Amino acid sequence: MKRDLCTILDLTAEEALRLITRGRRMKREWTDGLLKPTLCGKVLGLIFTKPSTRTRVSFEAAMYRLGGHCITMTERDSQIGRKESHADTARVLSRYVDAIMIRTFRHEDVEELASFATVPVINGLTDRFHPCQVLSDLLTIQEKRGSLDDLCVAWVGDGNNVANSWINASARLGFTLRLACPTGYDPDSGSLERARAQGRGKIVLTTDPFEAVASADIIYTDVWASMGQESEEAERKSVFAPYQVNGKLLEAAPPHALVMHCLPAHRGDEITDEVMDGPGSIVFDQAENRLHLQMALIEWMMSPSAFESALGNA
């Protein structure tokens, strides 16, 4: 049976943790020259209607390292840009490739693609969710802390797609999530309601960033205006100015707190240079770990026997 990743809620807690475990082992195997090319002969189709640096390079590198191949399509050079439906695109690509990754605006487009594809579909980012980012962030946190137990994550800024995926992750894995967002910029209400109904993670929504970081192990931020919101940039800068992750905010957090940002960063807006380049920043480690988590993800989807064998033999 094929598996899709439209949101983190498509995974059980055990599956999410197994992906993190496999990603960390693949990282060590690559470093030690022991990584096996488990996806030889496999092809991953990449569809981009939003620009990308980390998503594109990490998926292409992941397939290359595992012996597979990528076919990358932008809106300009695919028929999606000429109004072919996602359903028809899914039907056709399923006959050519072994899995599909799409990075786009509307989350409904990913769901339609997954519904009609007979191969696994991965959400590389939509306006509502960014599951690959948060799964790789959890890998980084486990790597740095040694465990995800008793974890408290503070989100500071816009209640955007990454924030929504953090809510889903809290619902699945049961850690504490404290979200500090300005009034009117809250995360998706449906995601919050579903997460709270599950009752696993403790999710707190506040407008006070100092309250959010007071007991945080991780302080996380993102740009104030995402792609497609450029016309709101000036207004958002004014609204979000009190939510900058800077030295003053870090003084309110525990000394061990680590700082994360999914990049690209607008230095001087949502985060200062002193914090992003400071001793508590793990921003570039988390960027690297996109690669390792996604190697585990595509192996799990495209060669589940290899995935299970690798975990069983470790």
Percent of residues in beta strands: 5-15%
Q: For the report, how would you describe the main beta sheet?
A: 5 strands, parallel
Shape: globular
The helical percent reads 40-55%
**What series of H and E elements makes up the topology?**
HEHEHEHEHEHEHEHEHHEHHH
What is the strand tally? 9
| Rg measurement, Å | 19 Å
Q: Number of helical segments?
A: 13
Mean pLDDT across every amino acid position: 95
Write the CATH architecture name of the largest domain.
3-Layer(aba) Sandwich
Ranges where pLDDT stays below 50 over 5 or more residues in a row are: none
CATH topology of the largest domain: Rossmann fold
Kindly report the name of the CATH homologous superfamily of the largest domain.
Aspartate/ornithine carbamoyltransferase
Strand numbers in spatial order across the main sheet: 7-6-5-8-9
CATH class of the largest domain equals: Alpha Beta
- End-to-end distance, in Å? 25 Å
Main structural class: alpha/beta
Domain count: 2
